[in-house]
Design a protein that fits this description.
The structure holds two protein chains of two kinds. Chain A has helices spanning 21-24, 44-47, 85-93, 105-112, 123-133, 164-172, 176-181, 184-197; strands at residues 7-9, 11-14, 70-73, 97-100, 117-120, 141-144, 149-151, 157-159. By secondary structure, chain A is an alpha/beta fold. Chain A starts with 6 loop residues before the first strand and ends with a helix. By secondary structure, chain B is α/β, with parallel strands linked by helices. The longest helix of chain B has 17 residues, at 81-97. The chains are: A alpha/beta, B alpha/beta.
Chain lengths: 201, 472
């Protein structure tokens, strides 16, 4: 995984609440056996007509947001299916930060495995950033993971919380499996004890 | 004496293989269920890194999401090229990595969350994961079960652990008994209606109370299945005699002296008196009515005798979401839900595709015919459910009523295979998600129980099962 670097760019406003992973990447694109190439189908049914032409007023089709690296979203973003195709599609499109009041659990965890930073902020902060995002190219939102801050265009800074371990992995582009292998002795010991105590498991 | 623990605390504590100073744990996984859609990239990742599956004997694979459910599905021509490649990838990966496997041709094949319990892979006190959000289903056994993403699938395949932090405890108590016509599905939808789709985020829910105790194991699976629709990491129900009886004799359940030892252990799996819950929700069983969703989120749920709500009944971001939902669903505020016409009925899914669900639906359909022009299908949750339904004569009832009688799979629940709604088609479905486009682009989904789906197939409208009399 690539190291997460600070992001400063245009943010697409998506104020709808409960944006689910079926919306982010509809099921017909789950037939792939690869991780790559899903960006073109991100938000497919909101973004394209049935004939494949673009729906002009969808935010990511508007000239200002075609290269958005940040999404500011309504609460409970990423609810529903566990499909990791959702963060794969976001990342492939070029989005590396999603800001919302709240995220669904599985989606939130999946983001960190793919170099995407989901940022949870209180309502007022999200509202300020959502306003900022609607200004298109006239606004740039800056995200600093090391210092855990998001800055609006006018310089207003919002601090955010992130799990220290997840932050460390994101900043250093670390592979979880490699890290867990360093604790293989603990897993071996656990397995041995469990086989004695509860052999049916 | 140690502090009183919840059921979740007990299962969690018994599976921590390592704990870092900041509370990040390696949680040991007892059963890993795998299906064709969320696993190919994980197996490929192992292969690229030269890694193996650490515990193939604890890993169970079955294709379900993307397989055809038509009777002629053995013919490769029934699948699109990309679907065929995906199912073949699972065939190949299961063989290469040596995991347990139920291919499409095996009578035991079916929806992974139905096959696991049916084959005795799911047992009380376990940790169970799968690259599918409805893994919560297995919580019905008092197992800690939840969905994971593909990177985590790869992590579990490689290490048999997950990197996790503990969730908070929520208790959802359903007191008293259910009234006639009210089912496990109505319980779980009503809980989501009360908490909202994000209300469970950060929590593991333990369902308890008389109405839960009175449910069969299959009903309990329906309740836990939709814990994720309320945002919870997992749903749990303490095991009892019904649980033990269900497990006893299953192909992969312990036998003999090992069974006795397991039983002793399972009897300790309950929440201690005085254990702390971070949140408690109580619903009276008697207050739950047969229910239906009207919008595009599982929280958009109302009793069947209610009226379609208005955006002005809501606040905040939900106002715009409801406006959008009503437009998408083609509904008017103030309309009676029982006046909503249906053209498709889907009975199946990991929520309601078990034998009791089919018995309940067939009970309504006996001697009845589906409405003219109605498209109705039953997709049994597994090949064994299908075989049993045929043996009990249920299949004949469905066929006589005009239903299509399909092979096992996820089918129209997520519509990855050709079982889809066309734009503006309206479906009464026993599945778990009514999201925009879920059952096909532009398709409109109303989530209901199996008896309500069956009644809707006959009347052609959303129907209150309590007043359903059928055709003379």
């Amino acid at each position: 995984m690539d190291k997460f670097t600070n992001v400063s760019g245009v943010a697409a406003p998506m104020p709808l609440v409960n944006i689910d992973t079926d919306m982010i990447i509809p099921k017909q694109f789950l037939k792939t056996i690869k991780r790559s190439g899903l960006g073109v189908n991100l938000f497919d049914e909101m973004r394209y007509n049935a004939d494949g032409s673009e729906i002009a007023d969808f935010v990511l089709n508007q000239p200002a947001y075609r290269n958005a690296e940040i999404i500011v979203a309504g609460e409970n973003f990423g609810c529903g299916s566990s499909r990791e195709h959702a963060p794969w599609a976001l990342k492939d499109f070029g989005v590396s930060v999603v800001i919302s009041e709240s995220f669904a659990d599985i989606f939130y965890n999946n983001c960190f495995k793919n170099g995407i930073l989901p940022i949870m902020l209180p309502k007022e902060a999200v509202e300020t950033l959502m306003d900022d995002a609607t200004k298109g190219e006239n606004a740039r939102i800056s995200v600093d993971l090391e210092n855990q801050t998001v800055s609006a265009t006018d310089g207003t800074e919002f601090a955010f919380e992130v799990d220290a371990f997840k932050k460390h992995c994101l900043l250093n582009g670390l592979d979880d499996i490699g890290l867990t292998y360093q604790k293989i002795d603990a897993i071996d010991a656990f397995e041995k004890a469990q086989a004695e105590k509860t052999p049916w498991l | 004496m140690s502090a009183p623990k919840t059921l979740y605390d007990k299962i969690w504590d018994a599976h921590v293989a390592d704990e870092a100073e900041d509370g990040t744990c390696l949680l040991y996984i007892d059963r890993h269920l795998v299906h064709e859609v969320t696993s190919p990239q994980a197996f490929e990742g192992l292969r690229m890194a030269g890694r193996t599956v650490r515990a193939p004997e604890k890993t169970i694979a079955v294709p379900d999401h993307n397989v055809p459910t038509t009777l002629d599905r053995a013919d490769p021509a029934t699948m699109t090229e990309d679907s065929r490649i995906q199912v073949e990838a699972l065939d190949k990966n299961a063989k290469e990595f040596g995991v347990h496997y139920y291919p499409v041709s095996d009578v035991r094949q079916g929806i992974v969350h139905i096959v696991g319990p049916e084959q005795g892979w799911t047992l009380p006190g376990m940790t169970v994961v799968c690259g599918d959000s409805h893994t919560a289903t297995h919580g019905a056994f008092g197992a800690l079960a939840h969905g994971i993403g593909t990177s985590e699938v790869e992590h579990v395949l490689a290490t048999q652990t997950l990197i996790q932090k503990k969730s908070k405890n929520m208790k959802v108590e359903i007191t008293g008994s259910l009234r006639p016509g009210v089912t496990a599905k109505d319980i779980t939808m009503n809980v989501i209606g009360k908490t909202g789709t994000a209300g469970g985020t950060g929590f593991v829910i333990e369902y308890c109370g008389q109405a839960i105790e009175e449910l069969s194991m299959e009903g309990r699976m329906t309740v836990c299945n939709m814990a994720i629709e309320g945002g919870a990491r997992a749903g749990l129900i303490a095991p009892d005699q019904k649980t033990f009886d269900y497990c006893n004799g299953r192909p992969n359940a312990p036998k003999g002296a090992e069974w006795d030892a397991a039983l002793e252990n399972w009897k300790t799996l309950f929440t201690d008196e005085g254990a702390h819950f971070d949140e408690v929700i109580t619903i009276k069983g008697e207050d739950i009515a047969p229910s239906v969703t009207w919008g595009t989120s599982p929280e958009d749920v109302l009793p069947i005798d209610a009226l379609v709500p208005s955006p002005s009944d809501f606040t905040g971001g939900k106002v715009a979401a409801v406006e959008r939902a009503l437009a998408y669903m083609g509904l008017e505020a103030g309309q009676k839900l029982t006046d909503v016409k249906i053209d498709t009925v889907f009975i199946g899914s990991c929520t309601n595709g078990r034998i009791e669900d089919l018995r309940a639906a067939a009970g309504v359909l006996k001697g009845q015919k589906i409405k003219d022009g109605m498209r109705a299908m039953v997709v049994p949750g597994s090949g064994l459910v299908r075989a049993q339904a045929e043996e009990e004569g249920l299949a004949q009832i469905f066929k006589d009523a005009g239903f299509e009688w399909r092979m096992a799979g996820c089918s129209m629940c997520l519509a990855m295979n050709p079982d889809q709604l066309k734009p503006e088609e309206r479906c009464a479905a026993t599945s778990n998600r009514n999201f925009e486009g879920r059952q096909g682009r532009g398709g409109r989904t109303h989530l209901v129980s199996p008896v309500m789906a069956a009644a809707a197939a006959v009347t052609g409208k959303l129907t209150d099962i309590r007043s359903f009399e059928g055709a003379a």
